[in-house]
Amino acid sequence: MVTAYAVSLNAARTDRGAIATVVTITFAQMSTSIDVFAKAREHERIAQLKAARDLDALPYFHTLEGPTLPVVVMEGRRRIMLGSNNYLGLTGDERVRQGAMDALNRYGTGITGSRFLNGTLDLHLELEAELAEWLGVDSALVFTTGHQANVGALGTILGPGDTVVADSGDHASILDGIKISGAKLRAFRHNRLDQLEKRLERATEDGGGILVVVDGVFSTEGDVAPLPEICDLCSRYGARLMVDEAHALGVLGARGAGACELLGVEDRVDLRMATFSKSLASCGGVIGGPADVIEFLRIQARSFIFTASAVPAAVGAALAAVRICRSDEGRDLFAKVLDNAAYLHRGLSELGFHVVPPTRLGDGTEVITPVVPVLVGDDWKAVFLWKALYENDVFVNVMIHPAVPPAGALLRTSVMATHDRETLDRALETFAKVKREFESEHGTLPGGQ
Ligand SMILES: Cc1ncc(COP(=O)(O)O)c(C=O)c1O
Predict the structure, then answer these.
(1) For residue 284, how far is its CA from the centre of ligand 1 (angstroms)?
(2) How far apart are CA 299 and CA 309, in angstroms?
(3) How far, in Å, are 67, 81, 320, 433 from residue 383 at the CA level?
(4) Strand ranges (DSSP E) for 245-329?
(5) DSSP letter at 115?
(6) Distance CA 139, CA 18 (A)
(7) pTM to 2 decimals?
(8) Closest residue by Cα to residue 323 from 369, 282, 273, 382
């Protein structure tokens, strides 16, 4: 039973002769045939989920029973982890664990309040200062998660009169921020500069401010945005540019400061976003940019003000990880993870898998990021391939529509700096065996490049 309030508006003549609106509100218990819970029972995803469960082939929600390291214990077995974002392997690093424990011991288990009101620690300020220096920005603001950083920045900087131009491969948190802002969205197909330019042309006629927002490294495809060209287009059309460095911070560039550093455009990008949930082995997010803009977010971003500050252990771990990245050791770690990525990429390609090709930069060099996706195409084929790998103790991620375009299902594999060659070789042998068996039963998988 749903309580309904029936409202009727009637025109009536007042005793002075003027027309007035008489509002009659009738409070009534009325039943409605629409139940908001219906979608939870009838959504097509529910049927898919059930089918996958019935076939014992659900690739999601598998439980870890220990830390996320190159080899994990998952559901009672040791499995090679090729499905995490722990790119530098720092979740197991003693100094990072110590950073978390020191913060836990000093500040307790939680802060129980928002950073705005009563939840800012001196650790947050230290972390913000380190991040601003590392990114080479005026100022930085730390959020409780990366998702909240994107939602907070975009939902605050953009307004209903503005236009935002976004790559179709941008992370969901970017789209969520755009939705909240009420700005007009003009999306362009992944990395298509010609389409970006067309959207910018149209955006100049919209009459408001224009922001272009892209991932530096795309979370699913693992490719790098053509940032120099995007910067040129932004300058030509008077647009601001924001880059999400979630998968690039601690990985790309000599300082590990991300795709903007690698591509030499740091001083041409207006806002930089990153998360702590990948290379920094923790949880949290950051927006870096001009001091006045960051100050505005500090007092205005709802996902910053109206949520609890991260637990101290998360802040302490992130700070320790940032310090490792910024030390001499950082360079070795960045080199190792990229080397492992190239090794896995080459191995999978040689086995005949269709691996997303490396990104070719303007100077002809190729970049292979730690995200190495294997294209499969069909959703169910991807799921069964995942299952076969899992049963052979290799864990990867599966991306199906709507995370990828229809018929664009893929296995998302990723490496850590701490994977050794023997482990990667074992994973490749498993891929080879699974491919042979899979193809003999289900037909050929999409071939190499
Ligand atoms: C590109 C990108 N941006 C933002 C986020 C959100 O970050 P977090 O998981 O820290 O909330 C993610 C997380 O997967 C991401 O991949």
Answers:
(1) 9
(2) 15
(3) 25, 17, 37, 17
(4) 271-275, 285-289
(5) I
(6) 59
(7) 0.92
(8) 282
- Tokens 């559901």 correspond to 75
CB-CB neighbours of 159 under 10 Å:
12
User: What is the per-residue pLDDT for 47?
Assistant: 87
382-420: per-residue pLDDT in tens? 999 999 999 999 999 999 988 898 999 999 999 999 999
Residue 77: both structure tokens together: 């077995």
* 18 or 126, which is more confident: 126
Torsion, CA 393, CA 395, CA 401, CA 407, rounded to 10: -60
Q: 146-204 pLDDT, tens per residue?
A: 999 999 999 999 999 999 999 999 999 999 999 999 999 999 999 999 999 999 999 99
Query: Could you read off the pLDDT of 154-167 as tens digits, one per residue?
Result: 999 999 999 999 99
User: Which residue owns the Cα nearest ligand 1 atom 16?
Assistant: 219
What is the torsional sign of CA 216, 221, 226, 231? negative
DSSP-assigned letters across all residues of 214-250 = EESB-TTT--B--HHHHHHHHHHHT-EEEEE-TTTTT
| CA 24 to centroid of ligand 1, rounded, Å | 49
Tally of CB atoms within 10 A around 29: 8
| Residue 150 near ligand 1, beta carbon < 6 Å | yes
